[in-house]
Backbone:
């Protein structure tokens, strides 16, 4: 259903070659990453991949959500 959190989504910060998987509540934590702009990908079997640009600023906590459509 629309807007429900998805578990087991692979969240990839391409530039840093970092991959995180969402938990049962759809949350993920990339930990501490350097300031900069990155390409972020959300991947899950059975859903359309989502790509976006993410800008991180030093000392700022950021929340980035993605809406994924089922295939």
Residues:
């Amino acid at each position: 259903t629309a807007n429900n959190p998805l578990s087991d989504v692979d969240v990839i910060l391409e530039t840093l070659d970092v991959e995180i998987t969402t938990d049962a509540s759809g949350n993920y934590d990339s930990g501490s990453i350097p300031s900069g702009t990155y390409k972020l990908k959300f991947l899950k079997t059975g859903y359309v991949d989502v790509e976006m640009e993410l800008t991180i600023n030093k000392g700022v906590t950021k929340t980035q959500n993605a809406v994924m459509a089922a295939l």
